[in-house]
Design brief:
- It is a single chain.
- By secondary structure, the protein is α/β, with parallel strands linked by helices.
- The protein has one domain (5-195, 202-229): NAD(P)-binding Rossmann-like Domain (Rossmann fold), CATH 3.40.50.720.
- 48% of the residues lie in helices and 14% in strands.
- It has 9 helices and 7 strands, in the order βαβαβαβαβαβααβαα.
- The protein has helices at 14-25, 37-47, 62-75, 100-125, 149-168, 196-200, 206-218, 230-241, 244-254, and strands at residues 5-9, 29-34, 52-56, 82-85, 132-136, 175-181, 225-228.
- It has a 7-stranded parallel beta sheet with strand order 3-2-1-4-5-6-7, with helices on both faces.
- Strand 1, helix 1 and strand 2 (29-34) form a beta-alpha-beta unit.
Amino acid sequence: MARPSIFITGAAAGIGRATAKLFVAEGWLVGAYDIDRPGLDSLQQEVRTGSLVTGVLDVRDVAAWEKGMAEFFAAAGGRLDVLLNNAGILYSGPFESITPEQHHRLVDVNINGVINGCHAALPYLRRTPDSRVINMASAGAIYGHPSLASYSASKFAVRALTEALDLEWQQYGVKVRDVWPLYVSTAMVDNLQARSIKTLGVTLTAEDVARTILRITRDKGGRLHWPVGWRTHVLAGSVKLLPGRVSRLLTRWTST
């Protein structure tokens, strides 16, 4: 049989790039897609292997999704084991300081981009045994976060989509999972205007998240949500176990 394949969005930098490199090292065929062509070219130069397929993709573009997915499925020998919806953007600061256009762009990339990817990938995932979708959520999906209101809302939407599609797509044998990292040392947190970054710190690397993604592809259980790092586990556990008022106070404390 052909080797397993993974289609990664936002693959030119950060978590997407680290995941592409890890999966190539693990013997997968990797589709690395992004709007950043120079970044993809540098990834190709760094990897220097026939195990990497690259392509330009704006996740907001439905036609581009359909074209890229069909081309990669053919290059993979007629299989798609994993779709990693990783592409995302972030605007931080007081809600009113972010323009409506920025809020809308964030929704288009972080929510509609994931919807587009799931829609385009399903016909190919259904044709591959034990396939799965992995969506990049965030610790921001645990409780709405000050200074990151729209970003947090977008990750709540990704969480809900993950839960709903995992139930819907059981009939096709397709699993849907999401990943919840806290702050990760990538360009996304440069100049981040959220006080919680000082309280909680930036302790995760892109490679930490990539290794969690690899574990998800090997997991045979039913776990949907995958926190990354002990701080995220603590926050997720606190919200699950403590009353709403306490969760609110905990979030407020980390944000002030």
